[in-house]
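USER:
Class, as today's exercise, take the chain set out below, and explain how the chain folds.
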Amino acid sequence: MVSGWSRQFDNTIKQGAVASWDPNGLGIFQQGEPDRGALHQVDNVNGWEFLSFQFSKAVTLTSGVFNSYQLAATNPDGTLQLNWRGDTIGRGYIDNDAFIGWGNSPVSWNSNLGLNSYNQQTVFGQLSGSMNTNSDGTAYQKLNLGTASGNTWLIGASIDGPDWRNDAFKLAGLTVRTVGGTSVVSPVPEPATWAMMLVGFAMVGAAARYRRRKTTAVIA
């Protein structure tokens, strides 16, 4: 199951809408955000946005495709856009550093995590570990996470990352490896299809047969 969340400037977490508004991947439409059509990327402007992926068993992420966006310096109403710390900085660049966090949640994979009104510290306190990538606009990113694994993964724009730049991307693909198993290359689907696909996630044999029939397989 995948869901979208944003940390507000008062440090509370609110749930947003997740969808593929264009072919570039999943983005987040956070509460109170101006409707900009296809430009609902995952970013750290006017707050901090992240996707939560819940799996039916522990997995490891090995790579992802983060299609970058260049952010405007102002909001549609002319006010300055702010980074996740509340600072204004120039935006004559493209950057897509990502925050990756993992842990094991007791919440069922097909149930809402229920993070509304939590604060960032509470959410981070439930993680087993986290890291930030350093990509400078490169879409494909290999995630060198070693033995890190969990049934819940958070993927967002960087926070306390390698630089003070704003980051924005849409998530177009993930490579997921079951613990002790093989990797599955996954184009990121519409959020509504995640529940259907994750029902059979533990059926590794069936997934392997499916991969033999198709060059690119989805997470099953």
